[in-house]
Design a protein that fits this description.
Layout (H helix, E strand, L loop, with lengths): L13 H21 L2 H8 L4 H4 L1 H23 L2 H17 L1 H7 L2 H28 L6 H9 L2 H19 L18 H34 L15 H9 L2 H22 L1 H6 L5 H25 L5 H21 L3 H14 L2 H10 L7 H10 L3 H13 L3 E2 L2 E2 H4 L2 H20 L1
Antiparallel strand pairs: 1-2
Length: about 425
């Protein structure tokens, strides 16, 4: 019996692993330059928090729409074809920000993000199962956690661009001595001029991103991606769906993933609103978002290391308990301590997505992996549904004597409770 620990990434897979891992950073950038745009559009377009959060509905709705078609496309062709089509759609969505800014239509921006995330759905449906398959199954969940660690690097870059370039350049966020936004008191002509300037500021990073994506597209055109176990095998979709449905661990994993993504998006989207309630401007508030992401990244590497010694299912349960505790602090502790609790949640979120993903696919047959991955990506729809609901709560102003923005984090608390339950169920069944 060989007890030798297998390599995390074998030499023959190293180059494809590095290139596919770069995609995690690429969609991380898009995710987290978009989050602060909710608050920017809320002021600039004079929208309610609920309507402004339709940015997230469009963004994560694209995942829900395209995940299954992406899986069927990949099953028919190849992982490489899925990556190339994903990058192409990504670039098209990014370049659509040019006419969106010209027409100054909030709906046009939402459509642009919707198309952009068609591309991200292809990339996530491809990259996650591909990383799992590039090596020994025993190290698959650790390998995915390592690859996913580069996602927050992209996220930090997106946040940094938002905090250092976009948000400070927004004229619409200028405040008076009392800390009140000046924009709402201006004439319509003054507002129109500011809107023209600020929408161009929002547009430019997406255009630059589109150009970068085209470069990555060309690199993948000339890169050989190895065929993996189960790729190219002809299987009836109905048979795959039946097997997936009867796999309790997988089925519960899809549900847990949906609630996890919902929690993640709510936590990162509404940090700015939480800070705003404390009188902190958007540019400064975004620095708390960056701190949250830095903690998320650090914790991701720590949790990947811990998985060498602690069962990933147990670790998921423990991190879920930590997230629930920090969220309770966010709700009931007012002032800066509550904001610090909100930032701390990110440290506990770090391992959740890849660990749920890996656990859910552990007992899935190789030929079912692509479609199985698609439903786990489709579960990202939680990020589309829940933020508008949280925005509706925030619009109430106050609830039971507490700021409504504090109370709104009851929704992430519910989500983390479900993730914790999944970790416990998975650990008990192990």
């Amino acid at each position: 019996m060989n007890n030798t620990t297998p390599k995390l990434v074998e030499k023959k897979y190293l180059i494809p692993f590095i290139l596919v891992t770069s995609l995690f950073a690429l969609w991380g950038f898009a995710n987290d330059i978009t989050n602060p745009m909710v608050a920017a559009f809320q002021t600039l377009m004079e929208l309610s928090a609920a309507k402004a959060s339709l940015v997230q509905f469009a963004f994560y709705g694209g995942y829900a729409t395209m995940a299954v078609p992406a899986a069927l496309f990949i099953r028919k062709y190849s992982y490489k074809s899925g990556i190339l089509l994903g990058l192409a759609l990504y670039a098209i969505g990014a370049f659509m920000f040019i006419p969106a800014a010209a027409y100054q239509e909030f709906t046009f921006f939402c459509i642009s993000l919707y198309v952009l995330t068609f591309g991200l759905a292809f990339l996530e449906t491809t990259a996650n199962p591909l990383i799992l398959s590039l090596g020994n199954p025993r190290t698959a969940t650790r390998r995915l956690n390592l690859a996913q660690a580069f996602n927050p690097m992209g996220s930090l870059s997106g946040m940094a661009v938002a905090a250092l370039i976009v948000l400070p350049s927004l004229i619409s966020d200028k405040r008076d001595a009392a800390g009140e936004v000046i924009f709402h008191s201006l004439s319509e002509a003054e507002k129109a001029n500011i809107r023209l300037h600020d929408l161009a500021v929002i547009r430019d990073p997406y255009v630059m991103l589109g150009l970068l994506v085209l470069v990555v597209f060309l690199i993948f055109v000339f890169t050989k991606i190895p065929q993996t176990r189960g790729e190219g095998v002809k299987v009836k979709t109905s048979d795959t769906l039946r097997r997936l449905w009867h796999n309790k661990l997988y089925r519960s994993g899809v549900i847990a993933q949906m609630f996890y993504v919902a929690a993640q998006i709510m936590v990162w989207t509404f940090i700015i609103q939480y800070a705003d309630n404390l009188g902190i401007d958007k540019a400064t508030a975004q620095k708390f978002n960056i701190a949250a992401m830095a903690l998320f990244l650090t914790s991701r590497f720590i949790s990947t290391f811990l998985m060498k010694y602690i069962n990933s299912r147990r670790l998921l349960m423990l991190f879920g308990i930590g997230a629930c505790t920090a969220t309770l602090g966010t709700i009931f502790i007012q002032g800066m301590v509550g904001l610090y609790c909100l930032v701390a949640i990110s440290g506990f979120m770090s391992l959740m997505f890849p660990t749920i993903y890996g656990i859910a696919l552990e007992d899935v047959q190789a030929e079912d992996t692509t479609l199985g991955a698609a439903f786990l990506v489709m579960a990202i729809v939680g990020g589309a549904v829940m933020p508008p609901l949280q925005g509706t709560i925030i619009d109430l102003g106050s609830v039971a004597g507490l700021p409504a923005v504090n109370v709104s984090f009851v929704l992430p608390l519910l989500c983390f409770s479900i993730v914790t339950w999944y970790g416990w169920k998975a650990f008990k069944s192990n």
